[in-house]
Write a structure and sequence with these properties.
Blueprint: E1 4-7, E2 10-13, E3 18-24, E4 32-39, E5 46-51, E6 58-59, E7 68-73, E8 78-83, E9 92-100, E10 112-113, E11 117-122
Parallel strand pairs: 2-11
Antiparallel strand pairs: 1-3, 3-8, 4-5, 4-9, 5-6, 7-8, 9-10, 9-11
Length: 123
């Protein structure tokens, strides 16, 4: 099993940028497809982006396309979510998720999850 640990959350102002990190315990993280999700208390978890297991493709929903980006550094087994032009609507707990040799845009695609990191955007 792979363990995922998110970091980089915090409190920022609207219009700011923030980069979240997700570090994996598996040295073969490059073989995992990964996704980012977010959740506001009392609401369902929302998909915000994914990176294919080979790192060649990304997918973003319309709500964040153009101001979120995903990348991965295989040398340090870390996935990144770059968030630009943040708005208060981006306030949520952000989770990374992973699946070996696969990826997708739904929670059920991913067996491995991090504990989440809080992002708060003030107007």
């Amino acid at each position: 099993q792979v363990q995922l640990v998110e970091s980089g959350g915090g409190s920022v102002q609207a219009g700011d940028s923030l980069r979240l990190s997700c570090t994996a315990s598996d040295g073969a993280f490059k073989n995992y497809g990964t996704g980012w999700f977010r959740q506001v208390s009392g609401q369902e978890r929302e998909f915000v982006g994914a990176l294919s297991w080979n790192g060649e493709r990304t997918y973003f929903p319309p709500s964040v396309k153009g101001h979120f980006a995903i990348s991965r550094d295989n040398a340090v087994n870390t996935l990144f979510l770059q968030m630009n032009r943040l708005t208060p609507e981006d306030t949520a707990v952000y989770f990374c998720a992973a699946r070996q040799w696969g990826w997708g845009n739904t929670e059920g695609k991913y067996p491995y999850w991090g504990q989440g990191t809080q992002v708060t955007v003030s107007s």
